[in-house]
Amino acid sequence: MDLTFISELYIPTVMALCLCVGYILKHWMKDMDNKYIPTILAALGAMGACAAKSGVSLDIVVSGMLTGLASTGLHQAFKQMIGE
After folding, report:
1. I need a labelling partner for 39 at 20 to 30 A (CA). Which of 47, 49, 61, 80 fits?
2. Whole-model pTM above 0.85?
């Protein structure tokens, strides 16, 4: 099964937005439980994608949610790389 089409769904601007907001949530809001961060970033990604694409459709919302969740994984990859 070829899943390369998923890489076409990422929106770099939304990824950067979600990375920044995720970092702020993780490091500045100490009383927030970590389990809420992916949910917040998925919702923010969906809203950011709709704003970036100037429209609302199922494809745009799913693309934004996927990008928001991917930013969580990207943060973890950077964290492992720098050995934090």
Report:
1. 80
2. no
